[in-house]
Amino acid sequence: xxxQAGLHTPESLRxxxxxxxxxxAVTSRGGPAPRAAATLARCRDVVEPALREAxxxxxxxxxxxxxxSFGWCETDGTPSAGCGGKGVRPALAVLGxxxxxxxxxxxxxxxxxxxxxxxxxxxxDDIMDGxxxxxxxxxxxxxxxxxxxxxxxxxxxxLAVRTLAExxxxxxxxxxxxxxxxxxxxVHGQADDVQFEKRPWTGGGAVSLTEYRAMATxxxxxxxxxxxxxxxxLAGAPPRLTDALARAGREWGLAFQAVDDVxxxxxxxxxxGKPVHSDLRRGKxxxxxLAALAEDPSLGPRLExxxxxxxxxxxxxxxxxxxxxxxxxxxxxxxxxARARVAVARxxxxxxxxxxxxxxxxxALSELFLDRRM
Length: 374
What we know:
Radius of gyration: 20 Å
Structural class: mainly alpha
CATH class: Mainly Alpha
CATH architecture: Orthogonal Bundle
Number of domains: 1
Shape: globular
Order of helices and strands: HHHHEEHHHHHHHHHHHH
Strand order of the largest sheet: 1-2
Helix content: 55-70%
Distance between the termini: 20 Å
C-alpha cells in the first residue's frame, strides 16, 4: 500500500529501504483521521470538565504539577492553551460504554480514572527513564524536581481509585477491581521492560519475542484493554461484551507499542521529543530488535560489540546498529505486526453484538495507533 496523495509522511515514518509501507499509509486522506479527531473532541467535551474538577480537589502543589502535565498551566501556575495528550484513553472508555448501549455520562468516572492513571504512569516513566521532556515541554520531574513529581503521580493514582470507588454503588466495586488488576499488570510489564535492558543481546539470557509480547501486553495492552472495558463495567454490561472490548484493547496496546518501538529507534526528534536512536542507546530490547535477531541470529554478537553497555556508544556505532536492524527486517516486521493487531481488534469488535456506529468510531480511533503524527 502506498501513501495517499497529499498525506504528509514525516521522516520518522518513511518507508523502509525494502519498500514496505510506512505506518502512515494505513490512513487515507479524509478517512479515519478526521473522523477520529471529531470523536476525540466529542469525548473531551464530555470528560474534561470532570477531570479538571477532580484535579482541582488535590493539594495545591501536586495539583499544580498535575495541571502542568495535562497542559493546562505553565510551571508557575499561569493558565496555558494546553499541549497535553489527545485523550485517546478516556475516549475509549466513553466509546466502550456507548458500544454496549449505555450513555456517555455513565463512563465519565471511568474515563477520568483512566486518564489519571495514564498520566501517573507517564510521570513515573519519565523519572525512571531520565526523560527530560514530555509533549515538547519539560517533564514533571525536570520542571518541579523528582520528589514532587513522584508525589504528584501518587496523588493521581489515589485520586483515580477514589473516583471509581465513588462512582456507582452497584458496579463501582467491580470497576475498582478491574483497575487494580490492570495496575498490577502495568507494573509487572514495566518491571520486565526495565530488566530486559540489563539482559544480553545474544546467548541463553537473551530476551525472546515471546517474553517481549508478554511484557508489552502487560505494560501497554493492559491499560488500553482496561480503558475500553471500564466504562461498560460501570454500565453493568455482560462479561461477554466487556471481555470482547478488553481483548480488542490489548491488541491495540501491542500495536501502539510496536509503533512506539519503531519511533524509539528511527523517530524524528521533532515528533518524538527524544533523540534519534534513543532506545538503542539505552539497550532496550524492543520489537524491531528482537525480530531482527530472530531473523538473523548472527546479528546478536555484532549488536553486542556496537552497543557495549560498559561505555556509551558513539553516534556512528548506534547508527550502524540501527542500519543492521533495518536491513534484517526488524522495522518492517514491527510495522506489519502493528497493522495486523489493529485488524484483529477490528474484526473482533465487528463480530460482537455491539452498537455498530460506536464500533465504527472505535475502529477509526484505533487507526491513530498506527498514524502517530496527529
